[in-house]
Amino acid sequence: MIIKKYTVIDMKEAFVRAKYELGPDAVLVDQRDVRVGAKFNPFKRKLIEVTFALEEEKELEKPNIKKTLENTINANKPKSETVFKIDDKIAKEKLKHFCELHDKTPENLTITEKKQFLEILFKDTNLNEEKVLSKINILVGPTGVGKTTTIAKIAARETILNKNKVGLITIDTYRIGAVEQLRTYARILNVPFEVVNDSTEINDKLNTLMNCDIILIDTLGMSPNDDKKLSEVNKFIENCKLDYKTYLVISLTTDRMTIDHILNKYRYLNYDSIIVTKVDETNDLSNLWYIINKSSKPIQYICNGQDVPNDIREANIDSIFELSEGELIL
Ligand SMILES: Nc1nc2c(ncn2[C@@H]2O[C@H](COP(=O)(O)OP(=O)(O)OP(=O)(O)O)[C@@H](O)[C@H]2O)c(=O)[nH]1
Ligand SMILES: [Mg+2]
Prior knowledge:
Helices cover 37% and strands 21% of the residues. The chain is of the alpha/beta class. The chain has two domains: 2-60; 126-329, P-loop containing nucleotide triphosphate hydrolases (Rossmann fold, 3-Layer(aba) Sandwich). The longest helix is centred in the middle third of the chain and has 15 residues, at 147-161. The radius of gyration is 21 Å and the shape is globular.
């Protein structure tokens, strides 16, 4: 029997990590609250220590875990109730015009016509720009939006599907458990992992991973109002001597006023591209259209769930169509 303990923030994280590492047959055997920090520190953080077990005959060899990942990467998610609500003035006009041309109402457009409409709607937007990862990729964004999880998803895709040699770095030594979270994923994928404690170390750590095709850098979550942390992360990024690409990770559950605020504040970090997460937690994809129109930067990935690595799509018409199941609502 394999016994594994995880120290996590919440049970969601515990299940994601156990399922990812031990497979679907892992069972929860114990759960207890723990406090982490110096002995007399009144601000000790409350975490949960959970123990999972996996029976001997169900133990998964690493190659089998990889096989499972390969099989699940392209698996379709069960049907959701997500729609694409056309609530913006320009989009509404375009849909009206399209329906007139086809002598239809939005409700009785065929699936093919709905797809054609989305193609027209997004035609001249940055959605259609080519999506390429750089050798060095830095994910930044507000707290809890899914930066670390998305890094694990990209790392798994690149390792397993694209056969790239991936290396992971974290500069998040701020949040308790953050280093361990990414280290666990690095161990499962059997890829090198480095921790950068100080902005001056960044180039040395990058040099040790120079034989990798893709390097993914995780950063600490920051409120867009926290100028101090924004400038701290900027220091790490600015010190990086090699070419890199920065991605702003943003949750689709964010309200539009906050989206504006985040897009604006994070401009300070000169992000090149956007990754949208938690699409599965909303039943309306219209904020995607909003983000595309508000930002001059292209969307690289869309993430639609907690499952590592399968809940990630390259952002394009096909993925938007798949996620909304072609349902357009006026
Ligand atoms: N529903 C849903 N949950 C997600 C998605 N991506 C990540 N999560 C969950 O969101 C929670 C936070 O994810 P993390 O990857 O730790 O987020 P983070 O941005 O690294 O958080 P900080 O480092 O604390 O800023 C976890 O419970 C993830 O499983 C997604 O696309 N959909
Ligand atoms: Mg994180």
